[in-house]
Automatic annotation (TrEMBL):
Species lineage: Bacteria, Pseudomonadati, Pseudomonadota, Betaproteobacteria, Neisseriales
Organism: Chitinimonas arctica
Residue ranges of the TM segments: none
GO BP: polysaccharide catabolic process; protein secretion
Designated name of the protein: General secretion pathway protein GspD
Keyword terms, alphabetized: Cell outer membrane, Membrane, Signal, TPR repeat, Transport
Amino acid sequence: MPIFTTAPGRTLILLVLLGLGGCAADRHHRAGLSAMADGQYAEAIRELQQAAELEPRDTRFRADWLQQRETAVRQLLSRAETALAAGREAEAEQHYRAILSFDRDNARAKAGLVQLTRLAQAVDATGRARTALQQGDSEQAAQWLARALADNPNHAEAKALRREIETLQAKDLLSAPSLGAMYQKPINLEFRDASLKMVFEALSRTTGINFIFDREVRGDQRTTVFLKQTGLEDAIDVILTTNQLDKKILNAGSVLIYPNTGGKSREYQDLLVKAFYLANSEAKQTANLLKTVLKLKEVYVDDKLNMLILRETPDTIALAEKLIALQDLDEPEVMLEVEVLEVKRSRLLDLGVKLTDQLTVAPLTNNASNSTTNAASPSFKLSELRNLNASKLGITLPSATMTFHQEDGDAKLLANPRIRVRDREKAKILIGDKVPIVTTTSTSTGFNSENIQYMDVGLKLEVEPDVHLRDEIGLKVALEVSSLVGAVKTTNGSQAYQIGTRSANSVLRLKDGETQVLAGLISDEDRSSANRLPLLGDLPLLGRLFSSQKDDKQRTEIVLSITPRLIRNIQRQSPAAESFWSGTEASLRTKPLQLRNLETPVAVAKPLAAAEPAAKPSEAVPAPVGLRLSWQGPSQAKLGETIQLSLRLDSAEALRAAPMQLLFDPSRLEVVSVRLGDFFGTAPVSFSQLVDSASGRITVGLAGSGPDGVSGQGNLLLIELKPLQADLAAEISLVGMAPVGPRAAPVLPLHHPLAILP
């Protein structure tokens, strides 16, 4: 009979199976914990889940399964986020899918996979946008970027590319139209009492530029023009200005001409809105600067953001930018290293014998009935004085006190603060105590009130630096040392203090890192007092036995050492940026009204057709070669090293004179010498030069004595420079030259950059 057919057999088999199931659950549980310790989270959770399913009644297995599952999810999510932040999308996807392998409904893992999908779409759209931008299609690039940012709003590359597109679009929107290369043609004009519209018609036929006239431009307005080898732009500006007209460039080949009146200017001049965020200067001060220099009426000031907003013409905005750049400089800062030393020496000697200065003789008291007073002050009848004798008199002998006391004291108070302060701001240092001063107020009703005020006692130092351009620092120093000398009781019982004070004020000018010592605040006290017995105390040597001598000597000296160290000085703009054209009193412009001679024409213009007999147009001929100037010399130098630059001239026409003006930064360069070059050879030349180191300006006068002049090539000037301060953007510039002889003028300014190395 089989064993499983009987009841005991079935029970036995069931017990065996239960035992085997329990052993399997323990085995899965141990394997899960081991895999968890090794970081194999997916396998560990599967093993722990099997153990919990094999033993559903064992709460320990189920608790470990749920707890370890939460730990595994937390660790895998952290790893996925770290990988995603580092740009490892494939690794992040593996971690998310590992979570879903044992927790299918985990919302964060599903959201992570969706985020990865959108990120891949954003990367693809960003790549397409960059390709479109490289092909010049900014609109298509903007559309692809909109898709990319819709999929992933925080995509860094898409944001950067969008900013790049916005910058390009802003440049296109804010850039004013300008005429093409034809506008730079040199031209000759000869019109006498010609119609203004006829002059522009001839210019239009020659240059291909379209001129559009406002309806208020008079058709019968006439002008006379005689110009040779002049730039077309300068010629048009001069013609318009002398006839009270103005222009607006519509595109590269079209110009609108209108009367230069207030109403027409407001109608045609485009205004630009510009916001200036200031870093160092205050918005109100900058607004006052713009109103004073540029005569602006409306400037919006935001004190909270330290910002200015202007709505002006582009030329006015450009001038405002230059002025703000000159004012909004980094403020200088100074580190003050201060050492204060107070030395106090005291010597006290109290030596001798101090005797009481009274000898008392008094009758002794008795118990007689006639004694009516106490023993201290007995009183007698006059009749009893006859009975006084030695037995009835008492004497109080003087007492003697011997003093042997000597004190020697040395004290040192050292303070070594370091404080950083901005230019023209006060730095205050207080090392000491606040002493309470009590003031009592009494009223007629008998009410008393006390008011406590505190007074600073100790070492007080106030320093105000003033930084100069040559790395020199002016200091206003105020030093005060106070101490409690003693306390004084007032009549109403209040306590007042006697305060000793020593102070010094000075104004210094030191170099960066220079140390200045202020000493001499000395307090010297010498006190001597004696208590002697008359006559005996005056005896030599023996008088010490009948006297007491007290000698007290105190000496206090205060020494102040201060060292300013420049952290940051004013970084001035280049000389070219500190001087610029601003137009006339009536109108603001970034360039002056001038006629510049061009060396070589871009193309030869056709003859200007005359529409009226009074006008005599002439053919535009090539401009002369004129003057060519160039700098020769090193482009970098070390501090303290003297270098030589030469201003080289190439002139096809004879040069008789050439007064010049040059600019340099005096805080970075020192002009050692300015000499005449070899351009004039042996011909006699009148040469003068003046160097103004304060303003950084060199004025040169140069004139030949002969009437013919000199042409050719050579060095016009030789300039020796010495660098004073390291700067990679230093320069010297030729800003003005009036050549006598050649018909053309050089193109200025002419800069020579110089990198100054430490």
